[in-house]
Design goal:
By secondary structure, this protein is mainly α. About 65% of the residues lie in helices and about 5% in strands. A two-stranded antiparallel sheet has the order 1-2. Helix 1 (about 5-15) crosses helix 5 and helix 3 (about 50-55) packs across helix 4 (about 60-70). The longest helix has about 45 residues, at about 95-135. The radius of gyration is 18 Å and the shape is elongated.
Length: about 140
């Protein structure tokens, strides 16, 4: 049975991006690393402080994640030309390949989910995820 691409796209948009980053890493740290890498994908470098704000975590925690990603050869930190005290973080070719493989794997998982539960339940799941997101943001009118 072919799955509905619009349902897959909507679930990909609504489901959290993350997963296991590697053996020995805490799940939450791995999820943050993947979110961070996705934020770097397809564009210029970002500063560690901007990444810290994006993830909503402390600077030292982002530094620890960046150190790990750099050791793995997935990111590069370079001094900016405008201010040599500033650092820009970018993905390496290996980092971009990691993100692309993660996205392919994630899409395949969501496609299997939609095929397994069917379109009606997939639409119900989307409504549930949307309601949860609205509650999280406080936009349900009761916050």
């Amino acid at each position: 049975m072919a799955c509905d691409e619009s349902l897959v796209e909507e679930l990909l948009r609504r489901l959290p991006r993350g997963g296991r980053y590697g053996a020995g890493h805490q799940h939450q740290r791995g999820r943050m690393a993947i979110v961070l890498m996705h934020s770097l994908y397809g564009g210029g470098g970002q500063s560690p402080s901007a990444l810290s704000a994006l993830l909503g975590v402390s600077g030292p925690r982002v530094t620890a994640i960046l150190n790990d990603l750099e050791t793995r050869g997935l990111i590069r930190r370079t001094q900016t030309a405008a201010d040599r005290r500033s650092v820009a973080v970018t993905l390496t070719a290996a980092g971009a390949a990691f993100v692309e493989e993660h996205d392919r794997s994630r899409r395949a998982q969501v496609e299997r989910l939609v095929e397994r539960i069917g379109p009606a339940d997939a639409q119900a799941l989307i409504r549930i995820l949307q309601a949860a997101e609205e509650l999280r943001r406080g936009s349900d009118g009761t916050a």
